[in-house]
Design goal:
The complex is a heterodimer of chains A (253) and B (300).
Chain A (H helix, E strand, L loop, with lengths): L2 H10 L9 E2 L6 H23 L1 H7 L1 H14 L14 H6 L10 H16 L8 H4 L4 H5 L1 E5 L4 E5 L3 H7 L15 E6 L6 E5 L3 H9 L4 H11 L5 H10 L3 E6 L3
Antiparallel strand pairs in A: 2-6, 3-4, 4-5
Helix pairs in contact in A: 2-4, 3-4, 3-6, 6-9, 10-11
Chain B lengths: L22 E4 L5 H5 L7 E5 L9 H10 L4 E4 L13 H14 L3 E5 L2 E4 L2 E7 L5 H18 L4 E3 L6 E2 L6 H12 L2 E5 H10 L4 H7 L5 E6 L3 E4 L5 E4 L8 H14 L4 E3 L8 H26 L1
Parallel strand pairs in B: 1-2, 1-13, 2-3, 3-4, 4-7, 7-9, 9-10, 10-13
Antiparallel strand pairs in B: 5-6, 11-12
Helix pairs in contact in B: 4-5, 7-8, 8-9
The chains are: A mainly alpha (253), B alpha/beta (300).
Protein name (chain A): Putative DNA-binding domain-containing protein
InterPro entries (chain A): DUF2063, DUF2063_N_sf
């Protein structure tokens, strides 16, 4: 029996007619009633994207956002029953969505919002603080590999994503933001609140190297190669005090 | 009563044996801090299971704290019991994990489907009532109750279309599911009003045919009204307004048949301040008290 296949396809394709075999008690048009289900599906998925990407919506306005979301929903209906994760391909979709090309930073702001949502629901783990590192001498520190906190995301952007996001939290004036200034972001949730941190030059490369399994010494070298302005003290302070460290071990152990 | 999730000791949380025959509210993220800052405000809380399927963070932290104070109803929306395909065993595992973590007094799901192939449609979609769908739903409920180790409650749906293929009434279908599986029922009174209005049926006659002895919980919610192409009312199960007067009347009639039962105020869209939900809950409590007094008066 393919009744639900036909029903499901008609729900997701507005150009198709209602499936056969539907009745109404008074002979009114069954396709109007079927459209209630179609509308429920579409609107509930658009609403899920509104909830997941509030700053993107503020940047483009609600009407534009909902039309953009409607197209995404048709192309990418959920493949999971857990709606907390719905819309993970939305940033990539925005990047290729021609009507939004006037706002080249929009996709990266969406990536920041996706990372915040992911961090919000990530596994709990008490982070290491500076005291955990206090007993190490510089040589031992250099040999460490560090496991980053499960909520961590590191974003490197050609646009001012942290400032754009902060301006929409009332943390700074939007007029003060130059959207085309590159910014790197650390998103991490050491406890219950998600932190969004603008990283100093090279620190994103430093943390990304650690995430990939490099020792602290090798991560410093990688960061200096990518960004000559990288300040080691700042990088180490971020590693030790931002909540991004979950555990460390001496290389080779 | 076949509605309580049985847990093996030791319990992490206060050992409420079942949901109380009082009003409860759906837990909304907007109300978490208000609820934590005061003594228990209602008889129980209900959560949508899928909202707690993230790994960690604030949702679990707050629910864990509230579970110290409240009996809990775990209400699934994503199991797709009415689907033609198999149940998702990963999803069942996630539900089992939540049951273990929060020790709820009740688990309930819908007589509906929401998945096809790999697509999740995020709505509660209707099924035809036939011998074939009955067998399938009963098999799915057997599988769920085996996996979760408890008796579940199955909720009657709100529907906008009927199927030419149906050869069972909804109430007979539900009664037969109960007989075959031993599950209980969650009677959503608003859904009765919505579905009966949308299908030209008398809601009181529906209730009088409902297998009330299996009812472990009642739901109340607000509906929206549209018009069909012939101008007849078309009620939408919208969950965004107060419970309508005709649903309150139907609720009091329901209580005459079921007796006092745990009653949830559902309000999922345009969520109001907590005080508005508590006022709705107080109205349900007043009806529950009146029915309990009526029954005591009749027996003493």
């Amino acid at each position: 029996m393919s009744g639900q296949r036909e029903f499901a396809q008609a729900l997701l394709r507005p150009e198709t007619t209602a499936p056969d075999g539907l009745l109404t008690w008074n002979g009114s048009d069954a396709s109007q009633r079927f459209a209630i289900y179609r509308n429920n599906v579409t609107v509930s998925l658009i609403d899920a994207l509104v909830a997941a990407y509030p700053v993107v919506m503020q940047l483009v306005g609600e009407t534009f956002f909902r039309e953009m979301a409607r197209i995404y929903v048709r192309l990418h209906p959920p493949c999971s029953r857990i709606m907390l994760t719905y819309g993970h391909r939305f940033p990539g979709f925005i990047e290729s969505f021609a009507p939004a090309s006037d706002l080249p930073y929009l996709a990266d702001v969406a990536r920041l919002e996706r990372a915040r949502r992911r961090a919000y629901h990530a596994a709990d783990m008490p982070p290491l603080g500076p005291s955990a590192y206090a007993a190490l001498d510089p040589e031992a520190l250099g040999l460490l590999t560090v496991r980053l906190h499960p909520s961590t995301a590191i974003l490197q952007s050609a646009f001012a994503i942290v400032s754009l996001w902060a301006a929409h939290q009332g943390l700074m004036a939007i007029e003060a933001v130059d959207p085309c200034r590159p910014e790197d972001a650390l998103i991490v949730r050491p406890d219950l609140e998600v932190d969004v941190v603008r990283l100093a030059p090279g620190v994103a490369a430093f943390l990304a190297s650690l995430e990939a399994g490099a020792t602290v010494a090798d991560a410093v070298a990688n960061a200096l190669r990518q960004s000559p302005e990288f300040d080691i003290t700042t990088g180490l302070a971020t590693l030790m005090a931002s909540g991004v460290s979950a555990a460390f071990s001496a290389a080779g152990e | 009563m076949a509605n309580a999730a049985r847990m093996s000791p030791p319990m992490k949380f206060p050992a409420f044996t079942r949901l109380p025959d009082q009003a409860g509210i759906g837990l909304k993220s907007e109300h978490l801090r208000d609820l934590l800052g005061r003594p228990p405000a209602v008889g129980f809380l209900e959560v949508h299971a899928e909202n707690y399927m993230g790994a960690g963070g604030a949702p679990h932290a707050f629910l864990g704290l509230l579970r110290e104070q409240y009996p809990l109803s775990l209400h699934g929306v994503g199991l797709s019991i009415g689907a033609e395909g198999r149940l998702d065993s990963d999803h069942l595992d996630r539900l089992a994990g939540l049951m273990k973590r929060y020790e709820p007094q009740s688990f309930s799901e819908h007589l509906a489907w929401s998945t096809h192939d790999d697509t999740y449609l995020n709505d509660l979609l209707p099924i035809a009532y036939t011998g074939e769908t009955l067998r399938r739903v009963a098999d799915h409920i057997d599988e769920i109750q085996d996996r979760l180790g408890c008796t579940m409650l199955l909720e009657n749906p709100s529907t906008y279309v009927a199927f030419a293929a149906s050869d069972w009434s909804e109430t007979d279908f539900l009664a037969e599911i109960v007989r075959r599986t031993g599950c209980g029922l969650l009677l959503d009174v608003n859904n009765v009003q919505v579905s009966c209005s949308n299908h030209g049926q008398n809601p009181v006659a529906y209730l009088d045919a409902f297998p009330v002895e299996a009812v472990g919980e009642l739901h109340l919610a607000g509906y929206a009204t549209e018009r069909d192409t012939l101008g007849a009312p078309l009620l939408i199960d919208a969950h965004g307004t107060p419970v309508a007067d005709d649903v309150w009347a139907l609720y009091r009639h329901t209580l005459l048949r079921t007796g006092p039962r745990p009653t949830l105020i559902e309000w999922d869209n345009d969520v109001p301040p907590l005080t508005t939900l508590l006022e709705e809950a107080a109205k349900a409590d007043a009806a529950l008290d009146a029915e309990a007094r009526r029954r005591n008066g009749a027996t003493h």
